[in-house]
Amino acid sequence: MRVLYYAVPWFLDVEAPFIAAMSRLVDLHVLLEINPMAWRTSMFDVSSIPVASGVSQAEAVLQALPGRLTESWGQVQDFRLAVYPGKRAYDPRNLQTGRAVLGHVRAVAPDVVHLEGYSGRLTWVLPALARRPLVVSVHDPRPHLGESHWRKTIVRRLSFAAADRLVLHNRAQVADFRDEYRVPESKVEVIPLGVCDAFASWGVGNAGDGSGEEEGTVLFYGRLSPYKGLEDLYRAAELVCRQMPTARFIVAGQPVPGYDLPPAPDLPGNALELHLGYVPNDELIALMRRSCLVVCPYTEATQSAVVLTAYAFNKPVVATEVGGLPEYVRHGETGLLVPPRDPEALAAAIIRVLAGAERHKFRLGIRALAEGELSWTGIAERTAEAYCRMLGGIQ
């Protein structure tokens, strides 16, 4: 089976291991979208490189990534860039690249086109792409609180309507998703995301033994947005520090446009450490190694690459019972779950993990989950089976 996989830099943390695993099962051709806003985003820690617009050779970008990462893609048949010159998705200059993408698709002649997410830059050519069996991975069925935009809503609806199969990454939102977008059950596949273990390519192992941990350190990282529950974490941090004066909280990430951070909590000494802005991979790895646990006090969620990155470093997670998070954070096995918007419960869970008695058990649970249900080999196999079901249905 020949598959053309259209990847985007902001999902590289889950795309990288998926590409490696899927390339062992199918003839995989990869197109990575590049646009002026794509550099240094998420795990794609690459500074701007001059690349020609259109469908371009990928050597310059691949050489900027760790060798251990690109070596894992050794069985990929072809890896190219789809380079868009316009910052805005609907810039007319991007149409020429869209046409080049269509030309590349015709040349590859894939059995399946798989889009990772729904890029607005493909809107120009989506009807033509949909003439081939089309799979779309759905990371966020709805915009998160504070991140809604009418253009993104249009792209979602167009992409979902064009797809022959839609891959969701948690079961909790399937019913609402189908109702909202009027999607028949036969079009939906539920396949989890795996552990973001590609961070090991940056020269640091999983640190699964806890070496480098600074006792009492709690990490909150990722895109800073209204739905992330930072206000609840700050209130919980005050409660934690009253009982555990040596506790330390690290907040790291880039605030989304228009989001004003809540006032810093009243913590003793230097108990709050802020890293605002883009967090490079080497800095994120260092923060992970220092931390005893990762906290996700979200008020809403789909799934979370933050959880899956924490697992790559064998760190337990304290998260809220929202969206698909309970499918990834196994209460009492890989971390703890608490109700959303409940700083007292959040503080109690943080204290319980920091106390240390259960951390070894959590690490064992994380390893078992990573090697079992969340293994990329199994995820690739399930995805390939979904391709076959789709092709059988179309034929």
Q: What do these coordinates show?
A:
The protein is an alpha/beta fold. The protein folds into 2 domains: 2-194 and 375-394, 3-Layer(aba) Sandwich (Rossmann fold), CATH 3.40.50.2000; 201-371, Rossmann fold, CATH 3.40.50. It is built from 14 helices and 14 strands. It has helices spanning 12-22, 59-64, 67-71, 94-108, 126-129, 150-162, 174-181, 230-243, 281-290, 305-312, 325-328, 343-354, 359-371, 376-394; strands spanning 2-7, 27-34, 54-57, 78-83, 112-116, 134-138, 165-168, 188-190, 217-221, 248-253, 272-276, 293-296, 317-320, 335-338. It has an 8-stranded mixed sheet with strand order 3-4-2-1-5-6-7-8, sandwiched between helices. The longest helix is centred in the last third of the chain and has 19 residues, at 376-394. It is globular, with a radius of gyration of 21 Å.
Overview in brief:
The protein has 14 helices and 14 strands. By secondary structure, it is of the alpha/beta class.
List keywords for this structure.
14 helices; eight-stranded mixed sheet; Rossmann fold; 2 domains; six-stranded parallel sheet
Count of separate structural domains: 2
Residue share in β-strands: 15-25%
Count the helices. How many?
14
Spatially, the strands of the biggest sheet line up as: 3-4-2-1-5-6-7-8
Under CATH at level 1, the class of the largest domain stands as Alpha Beta
Shape: globular
Q: What's the CATH superfamily of the largest domain, by name?
A: Glycogen Phosphorylase B
Helix/strand-derived category reads alpha/beta
Q: What's the CATH topology label of the largest domain?
A: Rossmann fold
**Separation, N- and C-terminal Cα atoms:** 15 Å
